[in-house]
Specification:
Helices cover 2% and strands 46% of the residues. By secondary structure, the protein is mainly beta. The radius of gyration is 25 Å and the shape is globular. The longest helix is centred in the first third of the chain and has 4 residues. The relative contact order is 0.08. The strands form seven sheets. Strands 10-11-12-13 form a four-stranded antiparallel β-sheet, with no helix packed on it. The protein has a four-stranded antiparallel β-sheet with strand order 14-15-16-17, with no helix packed on it. The chain has two domains: 74 residues, Laminin (Ribbon); 131 residues, TolB, C-terminal domain (Neuraminidase), CATH 2.120.10. It comes from Homalodisca liturata.
């Protein structure tokens, strides 16, 4: 708590006090107290530390670094890559188009991907195929070899939690599951009625939340967006049912 009388002025209605930047007048209109910028939640993209009259920001994870504006954290590493699927291949291209290549090529002509995400730390990609019933992983240093979870029933959308290194995915359109990044240990997170189809899935690793959209077929088709923590508890509706179909969703986790 800071108590000081600053910048005394003599307006027509009598003296009034004002505070330096980073402080605000207290209830007595004579003393100044610190403004907690961190409580506003609008300045730092990750950690915020309040200081007398100001604040500082820092990054939560070692893979991030503070930018020149001293408020935004950005992932370390090389230039951003865009990963996409075309024909039998999963390809990448850098944001400046200076580099492009093939990360994986399927031996099958009917290669179909229903979910795709990237582990930027390990330079690995994960994808699901409801046609083959597999979730697969391949890394740039493995020369096109893959690790696979097989014998799944219609695996769909998937999303990665790069903090705890867990993979979340949809099976049979109405079951939410999680596996570790090594694709060895899996568990059911939540199960919904078969009439509720999960059409999209996204994970916020920093806030430990996941979001998904559901299309229902009780009479007329409706869609909604739900949220839960990464264990599947504290489930709540974010967007009430609407008549339109929600095809996909993404998060700005910063």
């Amino acid at each position: 708590h800071v108590s000081m009388q600053l910048e005394g002025r003599q307006p027509p209605l009598g003296p009034r006090c004002a505070c330096y930047p980073g402080y605000q007048l207290s209830g007595d209109s004579r003393t100044c107290q610190d403004v907690d910028e961190c409580a506003l939640g609008i300045f730092c993209s990750q950690y915020c530390h309040n200081t007398p009259g100001s604040f500082t920001c820092s990054c939560r994870y070692p893979d991030f670094q503070l930018q020149d504006n001293r408020m935004t954290c950005k992932a370390k590493g090389s230039e951003m890559q865009i990963v996409y699927v075309i024909d039998k291949q999963i390809r990448y291209v850098t944001n400046s188009h200076s580099s492009l290549g093939v990360m994986y090529e399927s031996p099958f002509l009917n290669f179909q991907v229903s979910g795709l995400d990237v582990d930027a730390r390990k330079k690995c990609i994960y994808w699901s195929s409801d046609l083959t019933g597999n979730i697969s992983r391949t890394c740039l240093n493995t020369k096109n070899t893959t690790d696979t979870i097989s014998k799944l029933v219609r695996p769909g959308k998937l999303a990665l939690d790069w903090v705890t290194r867990n993979l979340y995915f949809v099976e049979r359109n109405y079951i939410l599951k999680a596996c570790n990044f090594e694709l060895q240990r899996c568990a059911i997170i939540a199960t919904f009625p078969p009439a509720e189809t999960i059409s999209s899935l996204a994970v916020d690793p920093i806030r430990r939340l996941m979001f998904w959209s559901i299309s229902t077929s009780y009479g007329e088709t409706k869609s909604m967006i739900k949220r839960a923590d990464l264990s599947g508890s504290q489930m709540t509706v974010v967007l009430e049912p609407i008549l339109q179909h929600i095809a996909d969703l993404v998060l700005d986790s910063l």
